[in-house]
Write a structure and sequence with these properties.
78% of the residues lie in helices and 0% in strands. By secondary structure, it is mostly helical. It has a domain of 78 residues: Alpha Horseshoe (Serine Threonine Protein Phosphatase 5, Tetratricopeptide repeat). It starts with 7 loop residues before the first helix and ends with a helix.
């Protein structure tokens, strides 16, 4: 990548803009952040941090195609930055480009192999592709790094539930709730398992717990109504 030489004064100005940029991002002022990124890139078109932060701001605005363009340019400037690969993968999942997202997560894992969230995000991409064995493998890697990763246990429960392995599914959902009692979806699916196995009082109790977590859980209200 082409090098750009700056005077000390110009370098200081870019540093001040970067400081303001991070403040605007932290405060959720994403359009102001994009404007600051453009100012920095006007001075330094190869500033990978500005491209990354521009992608982050577009992502937070739900402008995923614009975010992808910025993440790609950040990587073209410096392909060794873990955060860019990871965030680009998340953004690509929003675009339903799961294969490309998996490639990004794999790149990020090569840089930082001990981040459980990377394996979890990779598992979700496999899940959306209905590649459940690969998803479970990634979830197991997540749990090896973080045994109390509640979402990983819940997702393993979802996969087992979809495969009608209800006893295993129940075990995973209970492990999820053992970590955090406020996982409404785990309560809901335990209720579903109880109803499938004709334990209706237990099912009602679980649907009530799901509703306590989220009073607007339509599925829990609906299933409760069936068995009242």
């Amino acid at each position: 990548m082409e090098n750009v030489d700056f005077t000390a004064e110009k370098e200081n100005e870019i540093e001040q803009l970067l400081s303001s940029l991070h403040k605007e991002l932290f405060e959720g002022h994403f359009r102001k952040a994009i404007n600051l990124c453009d100012q920095i890139l006007g001075f330094d078109p190869y500033n990978e941090i500005a491209w990354y932060n521009k992608g982050e701001a577009y992502y937070c605005l739900g402008m995923y195609k614009k975010a992808e363009e910025s993440f790609e340019k950040s990587i073209n400037c410096d392909s060794s930055i873990y955060d860019t690969w990871a965030f680009r993968g998340v953004n690509l999942c929003c675009l339903k480009k799961y294969r490309e997202a998996l490639q990004c997560f794999s790149k990020a894992i090569k840089i930082e192999e001990n981040d459980p969230e990377l394996f979890y995000k990779k598992a979700l991409a496999h899940f959306d592709l209905e590649e459940y064995e690969k998803a479970v493998k990634c979830l197991d890697q997540t749990l090896e790094l973080e045994p109390k990763h509640v979402e990983a246990w819940h997702t393993k429960g979802l996969i087992a539930f979809g495969q009608e392995d209800y006893d295993t599914s129940l075990d995973y959902f209970n492990k999820s709730l053992g970590i955090d009692k406020k996982i409404g979806d785990s309560w809901f699916y335990i209720g579903k398992i109880h109803s499938i196995q004709k334990r209706y009082e237990e099912a009602l109790s679980c649907f009530d717990q799901a509703i306590k977590v989220n009073n607007k859980d339509f599925d829990a209200w609906y299933n409760k109504a069936i068995y009242i």
